[in-house]
């Protein structure tokens, strides 16, 4: 749980992933519900994980303490409570199981489904880790956590293909392919136009500014200066 002040009010934020830690299955179900009869598969379903879990950890079942101490009621109760906590924590590892199911459903990650998930460096980092420290040259709340995640992510994107965790390509290739697919989809939407494209670019939002059709796409950024 993370506590943060919002507009002068101190609020608590809890991770909502215990029920659906990897929502890719829910996302594909919603896609089929919305586009039944229109499309058999999405253009891209990109799943972004919070880091691969350490699969060498205990499975969450209660241990037995060797010797006569294990039969003491207070010790047995302690072990039972610990097992309950471990079983709750193991829910966070189920994201990888969902990933394997999605990969089978999509017939591989070279199709419309891709997953980016840091493979090493975050195994021991709790999901609610938020340690103060330096980030981008400044000491800020959560800075140490952000720096740790940034370092692990950069190493992940720079590493070569690892047959133990990668299905067909290194992370950098997966990321580039996902980005290219998103750019092509955006260009196709723009070329098609219509109310859905106008809603996509925020035409009906407050403060929307009409685009000058004479300005090419590549020059829009410079025109806003």
UniProtKB/TrEMBL annotation:
Residue numbers spanned by region Disordered? 1-21
- GO CC list: membrane
Single Gene Ontology MF annotation: calcium-independent phospholipase A2 activity
Kindly provide the name given to this protein in its UniProt entry. PNPLA domain-containing protein
Q: What is the lineage of its organism?
A: Eukaryota, Fungi, Dikarya, Ascomycota, Pezizomycotina
Report the superkingdom from the record: Eukaryota
One GO biological process this protein is involved in is: arachidonate metabolic process
Q: Lipid metabolism as a keyword?
A: yes
Alphabetized, the UniProt keywords read: Hydrolase, Lipid degradation, Lipid metabolism
Presence of the UniProt keyword Metal-binding in the record: no
Regions of biased composition (Basic and acidic residues) lie at 1-18
Query: Gene3D superfamilies annotated for this entry?
Result: Cytosolic phospholipase A2 catalytic domain (3.40.1090.10)
């Amino acid at each position: 749980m993370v506590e943060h002040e919002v507009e002068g009010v101190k609020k608590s934020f809890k991770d909502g992933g215990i029920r659906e830690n990897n929502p890719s299955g829910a996302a594909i179900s919603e896609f089929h519900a919305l586009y039944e009869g229109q499309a058999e598969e999405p253009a891209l379903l990109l799943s972004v994980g919070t880091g691969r879990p350490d699969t060498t950890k205990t499975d969450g079942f209660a241990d037995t303490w060797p010797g006569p101490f294990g039969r003491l009621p207070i010790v047995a109760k302690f072990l039972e409570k610990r097992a309950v906590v471990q079983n709750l924590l193991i829910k966070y590892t189920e994201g990888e199981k969902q990933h394997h199911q999605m990969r089978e459903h999509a017939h591989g990650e070279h199709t419309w489904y891709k997953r980016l998930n840091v493979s090493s460096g975050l195994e021991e980092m709790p999901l609610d880790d938020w340690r103060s420290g330096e980030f981008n040259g400044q000491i800020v709340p959560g800075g140490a956590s952000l720096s740790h995640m940034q370092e692990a992510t950069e190493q992940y994107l720079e590493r070569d293909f690892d047959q133990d965790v990668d299905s067909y390509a290194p992370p950098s290739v997966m990321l580039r392919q996902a980005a290219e697919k998103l750019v092509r989809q955006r260009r196709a939407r723009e070329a098609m136009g219509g109310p859905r494209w106008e809603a996509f670019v925020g035409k009906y939002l407050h403060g929307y500014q009409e685009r000058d059709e004479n300005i090419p796409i590549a020059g829009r950024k410079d025109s806003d200066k």
